[in-house]
Target: Large ribosomal subunit protein bL25
Amino acid sequence: MCLLARAGHGTRHDAGPCLWRGFAVRPQPSRRHPWRPACSSFSGEVKVSKITTIEASARAKAGKGAARATRRAGLVPGVVYGGKQEATLIALDPRIVIKGIQTSGWRSRVYDIKVEGGKTERALVRDVQLHPVKDMPIHIDFLRLSAGSRVHVEVAVHFVGEEKSPGIKRGGMLNVVRHTVDVEVAAENIPEFFTVDLSKLDINDNVRWDDVQGTEGATPVSHEANFVVASIAAPVVEAAPAEEADAS
Model:
């Protein structure tokens, strides 16, 4: 199975191709950062992304040759860049990378990268390159987060209240238009996920961006105004087979 398959949407009808699928993993305990507010229980407010701590080795050299040497050593070469600082070259255990990208909402997950013999870098995963045949990670890019900056990030959409939806009870089907939404948001206030409440939706009802919870401070990128996130589609009724004409 491809590593790059979406997690957590197997029971719903999806409007687009499935991109990421993987087993759920338990993140490491979050740490409070001086400029990051504490996560609140969800009540329509923004639930700030949890922080996952990972360990990495430092790499001395950049370039293709050095990257190949890192892979021969059984590690995944990577880089942490941005924040008006010099890039930090790192190497990660491939199991850390695989576990990370198989976790729902990984694109908005904040990492504290503890570099061996160096400082801790706070960052987002920006890109993961996979081997074209083996489908294993061969390089990973992290974007360094700086206090006061705004970042472009892809945030997962979670759906709740499906069992209470009048439309679904009557045979309607949840049609997910956007599993994730690209937004621009403050680096210290990256949402862990957005939430859509389906409990009052009937057949042919739509959920639009303005209906999504936990979006305060987030500005959608490259989307039309108040776009549709999901809808409840009418059940498909199969036509009764036509009676065969009598033989003449």
